[in-house]
Amino acid sequence: MRLLPFERPTEHYDERIVEIDKEICSLIQQRKDVSDDNPGYPPFEYISEWSETFELYEDFLKVLFATMMNEKQFKPRVEPSGFRKHIEILRSVEKDERFYTLTSLRQYSNASVLVLNIDWDEQPDNVPNSHQHTHYELFINEQYDSRMTSGASSSDHASYKYVVTPPLPDDISELQFRFGPYNHSFKKAESEDEIVFGIM
Description:
Elements: H1 18-34, H2 44-54, H3 58-69, E1 83-95, E2 98-108, E3 112-120, E4 135-139, E5 145-153, E6 157-165, E7 176-184, E8 187-188, E9 195-198
Antiparallel strand pairs: 1-2, 2-3, 3-6, 4-7, 5-6, 7-8, 7-9
Protein backbone atom coordinates (compact mmCIF):
# COMPACT_ATOMS: atom_id res chain seq x y z
CA MET A 1 0.00 0.00 0.00
CA ARG A 2 1.13 3.57 -0.68
CA LEU A 3 2.34 5.42 2.42
CA LEU A 4 1.22 8.97 3.11
CA PRO A 5 4.00 11.59 3.31
CA PHE A 6 5.28 11.92 6.87
CA GLU A 7 5.33 15.39 8.39
CA ARG A 8 7.50 16.32 11.34
CA PRO A 9 5.03 16.39 14.27
CA THR A 10 6.77 19.23 16.14
CA GLU A 11 9.55 21.79 15.68
CA HIS A 12 10.91 21.00 19.16
CA TYR A 13 14.02 18.83 19.57
CA ASP A 14 16.23 18.63 22.66
CA GLU A 15 19.78 18.65 21.26
CA ARG A 16 21.06 17.12 24.50
CA ILE A 17 19.77 13.72 23.34
CA VAL A 18 21.24 13.72 19.83
CA GLU A 19 24.04 11.27 20.77
CA ILE A 20 21.49 8.98 22.44
CA ASP A 21 19.35 9.01 19.29
CA LYS A 22 22.41 8.21 17.16
CA GLU A 23 23.14 5.28 19.48
CA ILE A 24 19.54 4.04 19.10
CA CYS A 25 20.01 4.05 15.30
CA SER A 26 23.33 2.22 15.69
CA LEU A 27 21.70 -0.44 17.90
CA ILE A 28 18.87 -0.93 15.38
CA GLN A 29 21.47 -1.58 12.66
CA GLN A 30 23.38 -3.92 14.99
CA ARG A 31 20.11 -5.77 15.71
CA LYS A 32 19.55 -6.25 11.97
CA ASP A 33 23.12 -7.51 11.46
CA VAL A 34 23.03 -10.01 14.35
CA SER A 35 19.63 -11.39 13.29
CA ASP A 36 20.51 -11.50 9.56
CA ASP A 37 17.74 -8.92 9.09
CA ASN A 38 15.14 -11.40 10.37
CA PRO A 39 14.57 -10.49 14.05
CA GLY A 40 11.08 -11.86 14.51
CA TYR A 41 9.05 -10.57 17.45
CA PRO A 42 9.91 -10.80 21.18
CA PRO A 43 7.68 -12.95 23.41
CA PHE A 44 5.21 -10.83 25.36
CA GLU A 45 6.79 -11.91 28.65
CA TYR A 46 10.06 -10.27 27.52
CA ILE A 47 8.21 -7.10 26.64
CA SER A 48 6.44 -7.07 30.00
CA GLU A 49 9.78 -7.48 31.77
CA TRP A 50 11.45 -4.70 29.73
CA SER A 51 8.45 -2.44 30.30
CA GLU A 52 8.87 -2.79 34.06
CA THR A 53 12.68 -2.62 34.04
CA PHE A 54 12.95 0.49 31.87
CA GLU A 55 9.69 2.15 32.96
CA LEU A 56 8.22 2.19 29.46
CA TYR A 57 4.62 1.59 28.47
CA GLU A 58 4.07 -2.03 27.46
CA ASP A 59 1.83 -1.20 24.49
CA PHE A 60 4.40 1.30 23.25
CA LEU A 61 7.06 -1.44 23.21
CA LYS A 62 4.70 -3.84 21.42
CA VAL A 63 4.15 -1.31 18.62
CA LEU A 64 7.85 -0.39 18.51
CA PHE A 65 8.97 -4.00 17.94
CA ALA A 66 6.17 -4.60 15.42
CA THR A 67 7.36 -1.55 13.45
CA MET A 68 10.98 -2.74 13.49
CA MET A 69 9.89 -6.17 12.30
CA ASN A 70 8.25 -4.54 9.27
CA GLU A 71 10.94 -2.02 8.35
CA LYS A 72 10.76 -3.04 4.67
CA GLN A 73 7.28 -1.49 4.50
CA PHE A 74 9.01 1.91 4.68
CA LYS A 75 11.40 1.29 1.79
CA PRO A 76 11.24 4.10 -0.83
CA ARG A 77 8.63 3.26 -3.45
CA VAL A 78 9.24 3.00 -7.19
CA GLU A 79 6.33 4.17 -9.32
CA PRO A 80 6.14 2.32 -12.66
CA SER A 81 6.91 4.53 -15.65
CA GLY A 82 7.73 4.06 -19.33
CA PHE A 83 5.24 1.33 -20.27
CA ARG A 84 6.76 -1.22 -22.71
CA LYS A 85 4.45 -4.21 -23.20
CA HIS A 86 2.02 -6.77 -21.82
CA ILE A 87 3.20 -10.38 -21.37
CA GLU A 88 0.64 -13.17 -21.24
CA ILE A 89 0.89 -15.53 -18.25
CA LEU A 90 -2.49 -17.33 -17.92
CA ARG A 91 -1.63 -19.61 -14.99
CA SER A 92 -4.03 -20.79 -12.28
CA VAL A 93 -3.81 -22.66 -8.99
CA GLU A 94 -6.75 -24.12 -7.05
CA LYS A 95 -6.38 -24.53 -3.29
CA ASP A 96 -8.86 -24.79 -0.42
CA GLU A 97 -11.82 -24.11 -2.73
CA ARG A 98 -10.25 -20.90 -4.02
CA PHE A 99 -9.10 -20.30 -7.60
CA TYR A 100 -5.95 -18.14 -7.96
CA THR A 101 -5.07 -16.65 -11.34
CA LEU A 102 -2.17 -14.72 -12.86
CA THR A 103 -3.30 -13.42 -16.25
CA SER A 104 -0.58 -11.09 -17.50
CA LEU A 105 2.47 -9.02 -16.65
CA ARG A 106 2.81 -5.32 -17.46
CA GLN A 107 6.38 -4.36 -18.27
CA TYR A 108 7.71 -0.85 -17.62
CA SER A 109 11.22 0.55 -18.02
CA ASN A 110 11.76 0.67 -14.25
CA ALA A 111 9.39 -2.00 -12.87
CA SER A 112 6.95 -4.81 -13.58
CA VAL A 113 3.31 -4.97 -12.48
CA LEU A 114 1.54 -8.23 -11.67
CA VAL A 115 -2.11 -8.80 -10.69
CA LEU A 116 -3.31 -11.75 -8.60
CA ASN A 117 -7.02 -12.59 -8.92
CA ILE A 118 -8.83 -14.89 -6.48
CA ASP A 119 -12.29 -16.36 -7.00
CA TRP A 120 -14.43 -18.59 -4.80
CA ASP A 121 -18.02 -19.68 -4.36
CA GLU A 122 -19.98 -17.20 -2.30
CA GLN A 123 -20.98 -18.77 1.03
CA PRO A 124 -23.95 -18.02 3.30
CA ASP A 125 -23.33 -15.73 6.26
CA ASN A 126 -23.53 -18.64 8.70
CA VAL A 127 -20.51 -20.47 7.17
CA PRO A 128 -17.39 -19.93 9.36
CA ASN A 129 -14.62 -17.78 7.78
CA SER A 130 -16.70 -17.20 4.63
CA HIS A 131 -15.95 -13.46 4.78
CA GLN A 132 -12.41 -13.68 6.17
CA HIS A 133 -10.15 -11.30 4.24
CA THR A 134 -6.56 -12.39 3.66
CA HIS A 135 -3.64 -10.29 2.43
CA TYR A 136 -0.88 -11.82 0.29
CA GLU A 137 2.79 -10.96 0.04
CA LEU A 138 4.63 -11.79 -3.20
CA PHE A 139 8.11 -13.31 -3.07
CA ILE A 140 10.10 -14.17 -6.22
CA ASN A 141 13.74 -14.36 -5.11
CA GLU A 142 16.33 -12.20 -3.34
CA GLN A 143 16.99 -10.25 -6.54
CA TYR A 144 13.51 -8.70 -6.64
CA ASP A 145 11.61 -6.41 -4.29
CA SER A 146 7.83 -6.85 -4.42
CA ARG A 147 5.12 -4.76 -2.82
CA MET A 148 1.35 -4.79 -2.96
CA THR A 149 0.09 -1.39 -4.09
CA SER A 150 -3.66 -1.98 -4.10
CA GLY A 151 -6.25 -4.60 -3.33
CA ALA A 152 -10.01 -4.99 -3.39
CA SER A 153 -12.47 -7.76 -2.63
CA SER A 154 -16.14 -8.62 -2.76
CA SER A 155 -18.14 -11.57 -1.49
CA ASP A 156 -16.64 -13.96 -4.06
CA HIS A 157 -13.66 -12.21 -5.69
CA ALA A 158 -10.44 -10.44 -4.72
CA SER A 159 -7.73 -8.72 -6.75
CA TYR A 160 -4.26 -7.54 -5.68
CA LYS A 161 -1.74 -5.49 -7.67
CA TYR A 162 2.03 -5.82 -7.08
CA VAL A 163 4.94 -3.69 -8.26
CA VAL A 164 8.21 -5.64 -8.75
CA THR A 165 11.63 -3.95 -8.98
CA PRO A 166 13.93 -4.17 -10.78
CA PRO A 167 11.82 -5.10 -13.85
CA LEU A 168 11.36 -8.81 -14.47
CA PRO A 169 12.82 -10.24 -17.70
CA ASP A 170 10.44 -10.63 -20.62
CA ASP A 171 11.16 -14.38 -20.46
CA ILE A 172 9.86 -15.39 -17.00
CA SER A 173 9.89 -19.15 -17.66
CA GLU A 174 12.57 -19.78 -15.02
CA LEU A 175 10.81 -17.85 -12.24
CA GLN A 176 8.43 -18.89 -9.47
CA PHE A 177 5.89 -16.52 -7.96
CA ARG A 178 5.13 -17.32 -4.31
CA PHE A 179 2.20 -15.66 -2.57
CA GLY A 180 2.19 -15.99 1.21
CA PRO A 181 -1.11 -15.23 2.98
CA TYR A 182 -1.32 -12.92 5.99
CA ASN A 183 -4.42 -12.99 8.19
CA HIS A 184 -3.58 -9.53 9.56
CA SER A 185 -0.77 -7.01 9.29
CA PHE A 186 1.86 -8.78 11.42
CA LYS A 187 0.78 -12.45 11.27
CA LYS A 188 2.77 -14.45 8.73
CA ALA A 189 1.51 -17.75 7.37
CA GLU A 190 3.40 -21.04 7.25
CA SER A 191 5.19 -21.96 4.01
CA GLU A 192 2.74 -24.78 3.29
CA ASP A 193 -0.01 -22.16 2.97
CA GLU A 194 1.78 -20.43 0.07
CA ILE A 195 0.25 -20.21 -3.38
CA VAL A 196 3.02 -21.02 -5.87
CA PHE A 197 2.97 -20.33 -9.60
CA GLY A 198 5.66 -21.92 -11.74
CA ILE A 199 5.80 -20.35 -15.21
CA MET A 200 6.99 -23.08 -17.58
